[in-house]
Amino acid sequence: MGSLSGKNAVVTGSTSGIGLAYARAFAAAGANVVINGFGSAEDIEKERAKIEADFGGKAIYSPADMTKPAEIAGMIALGEKTFGSVDVLVNNAGIQFVSPIEEFPPEKWDQIIAINLSSAFHAIRAAVPGMKKKGWGRIINTASAHSLVASPFKSAYVSAKHGIAGLTKTVALEVATHKITCNCISPGYVWTPLVEKQIPDTMKARNLTREQVINDVLLDAQPTKEFVTSEQVAALALFLCSDDAAQITGTNLSIDGGWTAE
């Protein structure tokens, strides 16, 4: 068993992409996991069952809607009831919408702030009492390079991710004497199925080759000209859960190919 043997993790937005990589990394390290997110029931059950089959621990699914505080609290309660505790919380759920600010739909602003920022507050609020009682906890928030720098037309997303960075610092200070850490990870462009599916449309729209889309559009901001992988992000999260990372708290850890160094 790995470094999280006997521990239990909740990961929001974990039915695919980075979130699923987190869940699988924690399960591989010995944790039971609660996964959460949208998708077809068949696909979600396939991923849930695969986690159990591949790693031997327990995996359950919470359909909690990240715009609904009561459902978020219920997700934490489900983890505590099923496994006895929630030791690791990863706030990963997020959506994106791109528009000039004067045309930005107010309902999209509200939705992005709710899912990308407020959901993390509600989950942390629900999980901290149990972590304090147990005297151990790890809270990890998926931020973004956009928690440190901005891009045009992403007012809600950039605001939410800057907010996540501030929330992370505040929570870290509040729980510092309880052996609970709170950090955020700020990836750049990560190679996920969602990103891959955007390439053909961009090739057509801009009359570019696949390589030009990847290097001149997607990776323009990343000096390494390489994507971050979901597994690299998950490996960093796993390290933050280790005893070696016990004094790393309140930090914003970039994993962005040098994007924010410029």
From TrEMBL:
The lineage of its organism: Bacteria, Pseudomonadati, Pseudomonadota, Alphaproteobacteria, Hyphomicrobiales. It comes from Bradyrhizobium diazoefficiens SEMIA 5080. One of its GO terms (biological process) is monocarboxylic acid metabolic process. It comes from the Bacteria. Gene3D superfamilies: NAD(P)-binding Rossmann-like Domain. This is Putative D-beta-hydroxybutyrate dehydrogenase. PANTHER family: 3-OXOACYL-(ACYL-CARRIER-PROTEIN) REDUCTASE, 3-OXOACYL-[ACYL-CARRIER-PROTEIN] REDUCTASE FABG. Belongs to the short-chain dehydrogenases/reductases (SDR) family. PROSITE patterns: ADH_SHORT. One of its GO terms (molecular function) is 3-hydroxybutyrate dehydrogenase activity. InterPro entries: 3-OHbutyrate_DH, NAD(P)-bd_dom_sf, Sc_DH/Rdtase_CS, SDR, SDR_fam.
